[in-house]
Amino acid sequence: xxxxxxxxxVLINGVQDEASYSFRIIKAVIEGKITAVVNRxxxxxxxxxxxxxxxxxxxxxxxxxxxYKTEFIKRxxxxxxxxxxxxxxxxxxxxxxxxxxxVVTEDRDLLFLGEHKGIRMVTPQEFWRYYQENExxxxxxxxxxxxxLIGK
Length: 152
Hints:
The chain contains eight helices and six strands; from the N terminus they run βααβααβαβαββαα. β5 and β6 form a beta hairpin. The model has no long low-confidence stretch (mean pLDDT 90). It comes from Candidatus Kerfeldbacteria bacterium CG_4_10_14_0_8_um_filter_42_10. Pfam families: PIN_3.
């Protein structure tokens, strides 16, 4: 199963639109299709920021389901990869320690980094596309039918 670290901004942006890539990713974690990895520092940030910034009680309950489904790992890595925003290093540590291949974020500092030790920093849209193309199981019958119809 595909493992990823979701930045807090992804959780917050998911509340804005149920059709958003952020919301789809969170929902896929809840459904057990994607594994979200967190360490203590990231989990604390997630809970603190979302409780402060999200007012919709239904979405808060949705996030509680997300928190329940995350894979909690101990933090062993202490690399200083993002020197200009050291708080971002907890995301990379979670990915390294949890075996995640992606950090999903809207944070420009992390996106600028691009990749570190095989971990890709991607937007929710980029991650969702990768997930659909590579992990969502064999393409559905209708997707196969459409590909045949348009000749791809």
